[in-house]
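dude i think i finally got it to work??
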Amino acid sequence: MKPQEPPFDLSLAFARQREACAAAPFPNWAERADRLQRLRRLLADHETEISRAIDEDFGGRPAIETELAEIWPSLEEVKGALRHGRRWMKPRRAGVGKWFLPARGHVLPQPLGVVGIIVPWNYPLYLGVGPVAAALAAGNRAMVKMSEFTPAFSALFQQLCAKAFSPEEVCIVTGAADVAAQFSALPFDHLLFTGSTAVGRKVMAAAAANLTPVTLELGGKSPAIVTPGYPLDHAVQRILAGKLLNAGQTCIAPDYVLLPRAALSAFVEAARAQARRGYPGGLADPHYCSIINDGQYRRLARDVDEAATRGTRIEALFDGAPRDDARRRLAPTLLVDPPVDCAAMRDEIFGPVLPLVPYDRVEDAIAFVNARPRPLALYWFDRDAARTENALQAMPAGGVTVNDTLLHIAQESLPFGGVGASGMGHYHGQWGFDTFSKLKPVFRQSRLNGMALFLPPYRPAMRRLLALMKRF
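look at this
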């Protein structure tokens, strides 16, 4: 009989990483690049296994979507860190006050130590690898808690990382909510969580006990706003592309659409044509994704049913039955002018359900967004440059794509993160490197300096000099 393995000890794993940091607090670029290269090879060499595992967890996720939305952007993050990491880690010149010359100043990016990363189920590869790449480029060790809702991929990723890294470099943790609670209570040097606002509150509370700084990438109601005169077919195409990727199970998917009242019927017809053009097989189309589990599927169906009972016009965009319970597939569904207090308008949808909210003036649309918690993403469709600039200034949001959807997240040079209820902090590219570094200020005093003039006992000459300094 095979002996039972002892339970995984989170505290021991953390202690080992902390000891490794103490032994090598500032890895050189060769060491960091070696870790990043191993991460890159892990991705490049195991694409097929990764896609199959994620497909198994979802009960049907197109391999091309995994390649497009997970493998490719993960490789881009790692390759970007390899291209630029040596420059990012160099001391950065900084000036000193004129009264302190000829002293010098600089900023030294110092590795924080042990970084904790909590990964959600919707993009389990990309939302794990992206932060890990930033943490490794910054010279840290990483502990990664995978979602219990992606057991096949979590087990595979744990196995692959165990072969590519020592547990003192990268440690992958699996388990249910109790393990996640223990994980978030560890005294990390920084903790990054991606997930729901409700769980984010718990993570932040646990981190507060250790004064652990947190980056929270949450969700919320991300609006798409179509302005009068914008080509409706183009807006529909790009909004549905952002909404139906991963069957809407995307934190920055358009959550609802604000559009001119007169355009409602035309939007519905254009959306029906676009959905059937993009997925000619309907619910059986091989490029359409299933909902991750029964609980999420039932929640989405319940939200649609609630809106219907309250008089909302429901428009399923595929031919035939709007649901396939056995495969957990829900047809793209429009909720036309739903009550603002129904579940689909209160809570993040996270599925292929799209409310359409009419407005009479653009100012009303902006006020509608600003009356609600600040969104993680904002999508503005407009050909008027001046009106666009006004909208960008008027509506706080975590990130914005103008005349398209989702694409701001794919830009290495742009920070990704939320604001207010949609999160705090950011990462991607150098922004991630800086998040996982202490930008340590260093002041280098010159041999010739006037500090002796300001030492006690304080003399009249010092007072006269101080008066002169205050004037200039």
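The chain has two domains: 10-218+423-439, 223-415.
im so relieved honestly
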